[in-house]
């Protein structure tokens, strides 16, 4: 369950059902996951969150699989059990093989290690990194 | 500077120079960044960390650019200034365009948002996500 | 259970019972939650933590409900399941309606998103923000 | 500066200027802060982020000052320097007195402490907290 | 279970068995825990991670018990349930008494509190701390 | 500086001076660091925080140096620049050698790595770890 419970499709208002329909159409599925059913108690938030996800996760300069793996990387770093579970499955559905998964985990682990080491050693940023991506 | 200072190439022991040489050869650069120069005060750690990075970041099921962008995603989530600065430049050198960077930031921001929302709503994991990648 | 188990009221020393009594009197309840029963294995810590909470969460420039919602916001950001569960209920008991809860979650989500975005873009702090609250 | 630099009002496209105008109108200010100027390199993200903020931070069941203080609480917990600096000033502008600020900091500190203690003691959630806000 | 399942000793390849054997020999146990059995799906990662742990956790300027308690402190701060559970037991096996455990928890809680307070107050680093450990 | 500025000894109220005196006496120093001078704007918080620190960091089942190194470990994991700077110096003053510091950093890095890996692999806790320290 969740703090406010779940809004199931059959119990949803027309406004919420419209969003559920768009999720299912966009994702080519007939399944609404617990996260959507939980935040559906707040229809403006459901709508806003879904519209943001739809825009952000669409194919672009980065393909959907890469975006999904980035989502997993963030969720692991944040220790978010729900998101790790759901996005690992999503990434698989979008083409992540077991081999990709293992490499993803290795990179996430290593990045967490060196993030802390460089901070623990109080290393100042090199001048050549201070221009970011500005030419 | 850093907690113990930097070991510059000209002041390094043969052991440390060998690792610096391998970093420069592998990365096709003549630059040793501040992170390496800081942890070089602990040669076993320098060696172990470099060997791990070399193995983990090599091309595999995931290409080096994807791995570098995952590294940025973790570093942003961890709020690690040094790593954001250095890995943003690395990712660019490996082919990350400004368009890719912007999408990467959007995904990282969104993932951090929904990680917290799903946890705040105490949403339990759907049964269909509980099998991970096990068939 | 917990790492060291729980100290139930009936098994508690006079010192611990005195603190349990003060918690129940202050909070107008006859319930001692698992957190207190767990740290009661360390009576100085139980005492210190309770005295701190009592002082910090008392009505002041901020009312108890606002303080409780801040506690929830921090607990969600830290992904602390126990604290989210307990402080959500506490906030409700202090007057948090479902509508307030939903807005609290939306703000927490959004803040986590922009925290990471501004850091990912390596944005420097505006001069006009550098004086804090000093006139 | 920032990773991609800033888009100043005078150099902005009509699309970006329209968003800058809406920010200034809504916030009753003639100032566009560095965060907006940084993400303006990605107009869809600027637009989406501003629209989200405008909706989420509007007066509702929670007033704008409470929402701003929650934003500060999250930013402190995430150790985000930019957001702490900017939202501390925003909260002050919305009515946060020094007394409120001090209490906010005390609550944030205490919540971070007990979040970690309860997790360190591996305390299981009390049954009476497991129903969330569901009656 | 775990995302890819567990590799049990009897089902392991010679390469993985060799690492399991080394873990058991080094740790003087006949038990392989779930973490090793999970990452064993990625033999290079299993090997690299075990070799790193073996090197890092060996007696040195810090004794194994101190290192194990530091491991617990990090795991609690990161809210990592698995690591808190496993490293609390390891620390106990290496000599951590209940009294030590309680003090460890108190320090971890306090450090998390003041970390956030000093950041929330935007305190700049004292000059006398800026030289790190450099004489 | 800091959000509210610093309260210097010469400008402090008798109440605050008494706490400054106790800090200097307890720590055998004539220096009050920026953290204390910042929170001194909130005398109850200054007093409560100092009293807590004094109690928690006193010699006990864990010696002061071990407690200080745990403090550093937490501060690094939280990426708290001020605390890393100040507690690294404190630990050195309490006896931490460069060799100890390097090992501390290596353990903190490794713990952060495996914390994330075990969570990313969604590893369930072994039965033999579920009893904590309860016999």
Could you explain the architecture of this structure?
Six copies of one chain form a homohexamer. Chain A has helices at 14-27, 34-39, 43-56, 64-77, 81-93, 98-120. Chain A has 135 residues and is an all-alpha fold. In chain A, helix 1 runs parallel beside helix 3, helix 4 (64-77) runs antiparallel to helix 5 and helix 4 packs across helix 6. Chain A is elongated, with a radius of gyration of 19 Å. Chains in contact: A-B, A-C, A-D, A-E, A-F, B-C, B-D, B-E, B-F, C-D, C-E, C-F, D-E, D-F, E-F. Chains D and F meet through helix 6 of D and loops of F.
- Uncertain segments of chain A: none
Q: Which pair has the most extensive contact?
A: C-D, 70 and 71 residues
Distance between the termini of chain A: 51 Å
Query: Helical region count of chain A?
Result: 6
Biggest β-sheet of chain A, characterized?
A: none
Question: DSSP strand (E) fraction of chain A?
Answer: under 5%
Which structural class do the helices and strands of chain A define?
mainly alpha
Helical percentage of chain A: 55-70%
Please summarize what this structure is.
6 copies of one chain form a homohexamer. The first copy, chain A, is an all-alpha fold and 135 residues long. Chain A has helices at residues 14-27, 34-39, 43-56, 64-77, 81-93, 98-120.
Question: Helices, strands, pairings?
Answer:
The structure is a homohexamer of 135-residue chains.
Chain A: H1 14-27, H2 34-39, H3 43-56, H4 64-77, H5 81-93, H6 98-120
Helix pairs in contact in A: 1-3, 4-5, 4-6
């Amino acid at each position: 369950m969740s703090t406010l419970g779940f809004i199931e499709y059959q119990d949803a208002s027309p406004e919420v059902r419209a969003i559920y329909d768009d999720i299912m159409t966009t994702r080519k599925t007939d399944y609404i996951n617990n996260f959507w059913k939980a935040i559906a108690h707040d229809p403006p938030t459901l709508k806003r969150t879904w519209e943001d996800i739809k825009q952000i996760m669409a194919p672009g300069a980065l393909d959907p699989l890469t975006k999904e793996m980035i989502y997993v990387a963030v969720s692991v770093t944040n220790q978010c059990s729900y998101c790790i579970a759901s996005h690992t499955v999503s990434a698989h559905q979008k083409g992540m093989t077991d081999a990709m998964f293992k490499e993803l985990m290795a990179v996430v682990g290593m990045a967490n290690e060196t993030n802390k080491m460089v901070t623990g050693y109080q290393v100042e940023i090199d001048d050549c990194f201070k221009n970011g991506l500005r030419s």
